[in-house]
């Protein structure tokens, strides 16, 4: 039997059973049928996230573009909300455009569901981004979880109450009506004659949760006639709050239900002077207090210190940041995991940990009360700065492994950077942003730009630190093809590196400045800066500086059409990159060398070079490199008579480029125009457009597999991927783009320049559009395109 295609999305598998919430699930379904933004609102620990994930999973079939979870708990900076959404959708902010613009462009024709979790500390930024996305993308719906509404346009709120609890003495209160504030709940006096039947009690949501979690924790717990009164009393005592119930259930490993209830009663009674009712937030705080007080001293110290981590952390991090003054780490950490106070997950074979957001807040209060906030914060910042600075010299030689580590730790590094900006510690922040430069280069160009600009605006750093930060800013600008921003940043880097005696930074900055001048069309300045870079590199035993110089020669040669220089510089770059194990430089140099062969009309020589580059780009997850290489291998396919593969790969490259928010490299349009002409001539214009559109619907993995020699996927496989089929229309995707540009008043030549195709190809598209629509003028095409329902 054929396996059904996997629906796109990133929802995590449920680690524990989901209990109850039938009414709330039905409410979410109803609201989402009539509204595009539904917010699940309730106090911490009430189970908003689990409810949102279950509702989203149930609704997944209604969204061809998938269901995608955006986790904001670890995001502390409002400017990074858009980046978090992009990361969840597996997009990259590699362009100068803001994340909201990239998201709007990507989502505008999608039908998908976003689950935006833990918004309460970023309400304004989240509401703004959600509103922008929904304006741009009518097919997108959002489920948000928060302790208070977003107050965004069109928001529908679904309150998330605690779980239903057993009624005292078997008398059920009106559903959903809690006791008036300040009125004590009835005492849980055992009344055997009034107990509900055991079978009915087992159907209660709160009791079901306690029973299942207790059985999982102790391995032998059962709800019986003997303990039913205590279990029911516990669930009432804990107000049906799932987090509180789960914390109590874990204690059945060493205590009976009756003992747990007695101890909680004592704790609540001390706080309230015998009055049984507490506000629900105080109920949860008291339960956590009780769990905390049952910890041994080492566990208590470790728990409060763990709150400094902004995201996931490892045992090594815990030992460096928290295990001071002889405090052990491994055994207390294992105990906290066992007591459900710390969450554990494996990432690539490495055990990682984090705190539930409510527990993090509690631990932060305890850390402040202990007077350790400043000291632990200093150790936290020092640990990550030291690790990043020590790893930097070898990062390029172990790039894949280093990037895996950075992907895990980036939220903690961001917290350190934010502390450097806000705490007037710009010098350390500049050194840190420079040390992790390859993360910005391969993962988050836009974010790297924001950090470097914020830091460069600060006072107090010396010329060496400013030179490194300015170099990083200039490097990122060159990768974004933003020559206007690159120039001033690299000028500062050159001046600062000269003053501070940083020969490698000086040489690399000059090479980058030469590339920026080439991009802006100033060939004379590019040559002058290139000669300065050559002089700076001579006699310098520094691989990074040599490779940057070779990259500048190769790229400038591509801009100028000097294929001999490209081949010479790139071949030496390939040799040196292999020798030192620099995957990023190898990726770039193979691309340069393969592109030179392709431009020279030798696709058979270019193919193996470009395929190897694509394997490297895939290994380090370099999305810009992947898009360029897919396009280049599409040109190889066209030049080798594989027209269908060429169309598929060029279509896929367009999607990968859009998902990365990348700009088109200047040497590509002529190659793509030539390849499109060749493939179109072989397939016919209509068939080429269909295959190109099919390529746009390919997943990135499928496209890379095809480029590296895999079979072309059948049509049904293409349509089961995250790329959605375009709405039903008589025009293909490229024809629709041509029609839209006609409506904007562009000529055939201007349309060709915009879409990187020849004027002759545009003319063919216009004739096909007229035939399909039965028109005989461009004005009719423009009017049809501008109509609300073409």
Automatic annotation (TrEMBL):
Residues 709-721 have a biased composition (Low complexity). GO terms for molecular function: DNA binding. One of its GO terms (biological process) is regulation of DNA-templated transcription. Residues 724-789 form the HTH luxR-type domain. Residues 166-195, 709-733 are annotated as: Disordered. SUPFAM superfamilies: C-terminal effector domain of the bipartite response regulators, P-loop containing nucleoside triphosphate hydrolases, TPR-like. SMART domains: HTH_LUXR. It comes from the Bacteria. This is HTH luxR-type domain-containing protein. It comes from Planobispora takensis. The lineage of its organism: Bacteria, Bacillati, Actinomycetota, Actinomycetes, Streptosporangiales.
């Amino acid at each position: 039997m054929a396996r059904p295609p996997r629906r796109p999305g990133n929802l995590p598998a449920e680690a524990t059973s989901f209990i109850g919430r039938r009414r709330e699930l039905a409410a979410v379904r109803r609201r989402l049928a009539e509204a595009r933004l539904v917010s699940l609102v309730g106090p911490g620990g009430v189970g908003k996230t689990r409810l949102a994930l279950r509702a989203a999973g149930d609704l997944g079939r209604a969204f061809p573009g998938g269901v995608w979870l955006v986790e904001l708990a670890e995001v502390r900076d409002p400017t990074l909300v858009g980046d978090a959404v992009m990361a969840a959708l597996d997009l990259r902010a590699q362009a100068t455009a803001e994340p909201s613009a990239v998201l709007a462009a990507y989502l505008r024709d999608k039908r998908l569901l976003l689950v935006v979790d833990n918004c309460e500390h970023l309400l304004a930024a989240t509401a703004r981004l959600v509103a922008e996305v929904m304006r741009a993308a009518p097919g997108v719906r959002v489920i948000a979880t928060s302790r208070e509404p977003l107050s965004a346009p069109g928001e529908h709120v679904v309150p998330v109450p605690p779980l239903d609890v057993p009624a005292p003495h078997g008398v059920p209160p009106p559903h959903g009506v809690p006791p008036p504030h300040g009125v004590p709940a009835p005492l849980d006096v055992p009344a055997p004659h009034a107990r509900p039947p055991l079978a009915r009690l087992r159907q209660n949501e709160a009791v079901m949760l306690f029973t299942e979690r207790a059985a999982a924790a102790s391995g032998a717990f059962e709800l019986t006639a003997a303990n039913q009164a205590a279990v029911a009393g516990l669930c009432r005592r804990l107000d049906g709050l799932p987090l509180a119930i789960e914390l109590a259930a874990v204690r059945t490993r060493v205590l009976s239900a009756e003992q747990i209830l007695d101890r909680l009663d004592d704790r609540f009674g001390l706080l309230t002077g015998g009055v049984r009712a507490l506000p629900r937030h105080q109920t949860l705080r008291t339960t956590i207090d009780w769990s905390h007080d049952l910890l041994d001293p080492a566990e208590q110290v470790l728990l409060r210190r763990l709150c400094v981590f902004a995201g996931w952390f490892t045992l090594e991090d815990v030992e460096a940041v928290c295990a001071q003054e002889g405090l052990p780490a491994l055994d207390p950490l294992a105990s906290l995991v066992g007591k459900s106070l710390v969450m554990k997950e494996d990432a690539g074979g490495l055990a990682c940990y984090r705190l539930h957001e409510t527990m993090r807040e509690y631990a932060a209060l305890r850390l402040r009360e202990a007077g350790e906030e400043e000291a632990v914060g200093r150790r936290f910042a020092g640990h990550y700065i030291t690790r990043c600075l020590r790893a930097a010299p070898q990062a390029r030689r172990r790039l894949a492994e280093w990037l895996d580590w950075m992907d895990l730790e980036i939220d903690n590094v961001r917290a350190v950077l934010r502390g450097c900006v806000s705490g007037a510690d710009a010098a350390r922040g500049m050194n840190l942003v420079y040390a992790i430069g390859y993360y910005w280069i391969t993962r988050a160009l836009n974010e790297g730009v924001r950090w470097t600009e914020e830091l460069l605006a600060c006072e107090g750093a010396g010329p060496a630190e400013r030179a490194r930060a300015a170099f990083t800013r200039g490097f990122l600008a060159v990768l974004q093809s933003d020559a206007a921003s690159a120039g001033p940043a690299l000028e500062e880097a050159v001046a600062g590196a000269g003053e501070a005696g940083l020969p490698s930074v000086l040489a690399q900055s000059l090479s980058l400045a030469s590339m920026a001048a080439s991009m802006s069309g100033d060939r004379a300045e590019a040559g002058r800066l290139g000669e300065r870079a050559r002089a700076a590199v001579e006699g310098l035993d520094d691989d990074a500086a040599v490779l940057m110089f070779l990259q500048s020669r190769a790229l400038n040669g591509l801009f100028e059409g000097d294929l001999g220089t490209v081949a010479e510089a790139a071949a030496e770059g390939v040799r040196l990159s292999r020798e030192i194990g620099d995957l990023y430089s190898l990726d770039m140099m193979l691309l340069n060398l393969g592109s030179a062969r392709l431009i020279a009309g030798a696709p058979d020589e270019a193919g193996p070079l470009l395929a190897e580059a694509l394997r490297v780009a895939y290994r380090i997850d370099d999305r810009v490199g992947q898009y360029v290489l897919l396009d280049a291998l599409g040109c190889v396919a066209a030049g080798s008579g594989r027209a269908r593969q060429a169309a598929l790969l060029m279509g896929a490259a367009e999607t990968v480029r859009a998902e990365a928010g990348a700009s088109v490299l200047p040497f590509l349009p002529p190659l793509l125009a030539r390849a499109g002409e060749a493939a179109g001539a072989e397939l016919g214009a209509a068939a080429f457009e269909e295959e190109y559109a099919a390529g746009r619907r390919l997943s990135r993995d499928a496209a890379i597999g095809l480029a590296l020699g895999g079979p072309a996927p059948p049509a049904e496989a293409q349509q089961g991927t995250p790329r959605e089929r375009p709405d039903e229309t008589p025009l293909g995707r490229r024809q629709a783009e041509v029609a839209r540009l006609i409506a904007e008043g562009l000529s055939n030549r201007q349309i060709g320049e915009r879409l990187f195709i020849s004027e002759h190809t545009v003319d063919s598209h216009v004739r096909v559009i007229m035939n399909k629509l039965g028109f005989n003028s461009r004005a009719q095409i423009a009017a049809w395109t501008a109509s609300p329902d073409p």
